[in-house]
């Protein structure tokens, strides 16, 4: 980090750490160009081999980022991978031309990867063979350190005093060739990640939270891939309007038909048929093609062949027997919604209220979000089905069983124990 960056970082961290801010904060410095220029996009095996060799011989942690084409393409695959490491510089890799980056992943084995919001990028990196064993998540570090805004641009600005360009985050990264301004933006995303990581590590250490962060990072790195979501059609936007089982079947059939078309065409499902149109069709259950065409989202711009496939999906739902219709709501895996606790189990509702108040107070005292201190789902599960004996040891075991880390258990177990015993 340069002297100017060091000064800016120390000033910003003092202000976020509770010390009175300066009367006038300096304006952030626009970061317009990568310090080494925009590197060429790596899209061949030979070029990839050179990058692998360079990054294998680099030193220190490696900054990693990935760009997807959400809203444009089917799925969440990576369309550009950016890396930066001391001694290797910055690399921009095209996973379309180089779909297997396992060799690069192996070359970086044991190296700490720096990512911002790691859980967003890890799934698409895993698909192309890049799986870290150690990581530092600058977004999560910012949350634990108590920063009010933890987006990458906000963090770089408040910690390092630089302003990143924000104009290309939601573009179609599957575009080829990628325009130079997009490549500049992508390279700048990893330009200061190492500097940001170092400054945040110092601040977490100052606040006594560095070990907490390391436990969180280890949990992310060791977490298995998320299983496929059960009944993903239930997440259709506007689904709360759909009450009847036959209508739910229409949503399911249209969602499934749309997903097959989107996957075949490699486009975002929303570009094939909107969620709003699916819900309108489910509420109306149109009897025929003219009735479907009259609904919002199904109009003159849609070809007859498309309309026929959507009406066929509606007809399939109409032909299902009652036994084949989906059940209202998903099977619960855990406690019921808290709003129903007072009626179902008043004692559990009292436990939850006491536990929430205690967790909220401690989170405020520690200057971090409640959900990072302990997940709300974990609190609900422990309060709904508490241990037979409400001791700190038993509550600690229950928290561990729900995936809480050691630092969380140490802080939260005594609070929950008191909440459970006070309302017994």
Automatic annotation (TrEMBL):
Kindly list the GO molecular function terms attached to this UniProt entry. Answer: 3'-5' exonuclease activity; nucleic acid binding; nucleotide binding
Q: What is this protein called?
A: Ribonuclease D
Which Gene Ontology BP annotations are present?
nucleobase-containing compound metabolic process
Where does the record place the HRDC domain?
244-324
User: Domain of life, per the record?
Assistant: Bacteria
Looking up SUPFAM superfamilies in the UniProt record yields: HRDC-like, Ribonuclease H-like
According to the record, the residues making up region (Disordered) are 1-29, 223-242, 322-345
InterPro entries tied to this protein: 3'-5'_exonuclease_dom, Exo_C, HRDC-like_sf, HRDC_dom, HRDC_dom_sf, RNase_D-like, RNaseH-like_sf, RNaseH_sf
């Amino acid at each position: 980090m340069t002297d100017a960056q060091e000064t800016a970082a120390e000033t910003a961290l003092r202000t976020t750490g509770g010390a009175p801010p300066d009367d006038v904060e300096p304006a952030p410095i626009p970061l317009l160009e990568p310090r080494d220029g925009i590197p060429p996009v790596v899209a061949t095996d030979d070029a990839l081999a050179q990058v692998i060799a360079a990054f294998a011989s680099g030193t220190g942690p490696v900054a990693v980022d990935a760009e997807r084409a959400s809203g444009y393409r089917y799925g969440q695959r990576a369309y550009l991978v950016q890396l930066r490491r001391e001694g290797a510089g910055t690399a921009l890799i095209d996973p379309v031309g180089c779909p297997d980056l396992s060799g690069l992943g192996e070359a970086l084995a044991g190296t700490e990867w720096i990512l911002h919001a790691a859980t967003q990028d890890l799934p698409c990196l895993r698909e192309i063979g890049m799986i870290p064993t150690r990581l530092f998540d600058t977004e999560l570090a910012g949350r634990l350190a108590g920063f009010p805004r933890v987006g990458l641009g906000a963090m770089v600005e408040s910690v390092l005093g630089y302003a990143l360009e924000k104009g290309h985050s939601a573009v179609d990264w599957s575009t080829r060739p990628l325009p130079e301004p997009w490549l500049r933006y992508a390279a700048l995303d990893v330009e200061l990640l190492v500097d940001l990581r170092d400054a945040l590590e110092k601040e977490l250490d100052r606040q006594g939270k560095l070990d907490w962060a390391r436990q969180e990072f280890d949990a992310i790195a060791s977490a298995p891939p998320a299983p496929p979501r059960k009944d993903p059609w239930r997440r259709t936007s506007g689904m709360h309007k759909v009450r009847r089982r036959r209508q739910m079947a229409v949503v399911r059939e249209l969602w499934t038909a749309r997903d097959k078309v989107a996957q075949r065409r490699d486009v975002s499902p929303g570009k094939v048929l909107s969620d709003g149109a699916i819900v309108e069709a489910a509420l109306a259950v149109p009897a025929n093609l003219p009735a479907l065409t009259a609904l919002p989202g199904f109009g003159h711009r849609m070809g007859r062949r498309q309309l026929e496939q959507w009406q066929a999906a509606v007809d399939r739902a109409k032909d299902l027997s009652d036994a084949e219709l989906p059940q209202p709501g998903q099977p619960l895996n855990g406690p019921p919604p808290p709003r129903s606790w007072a009626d179902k189990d008043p004692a559990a509702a009292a436990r939850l209220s006491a536990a929430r108040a205690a967790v909220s107070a401690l989170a405020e005292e520690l200057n971090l979000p409640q959900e990072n201190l302990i997940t709300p789902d974990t609190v609900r599960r422990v309060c709904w089905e508490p241990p037979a004996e409400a001791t700190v040891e038993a509550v600690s075991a229950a928290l561990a069983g729900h995936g809480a880390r050691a630092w969380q258990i140490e802080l939260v177990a005594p609070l929950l124990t008191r909440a459970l015993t006070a309302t017994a």
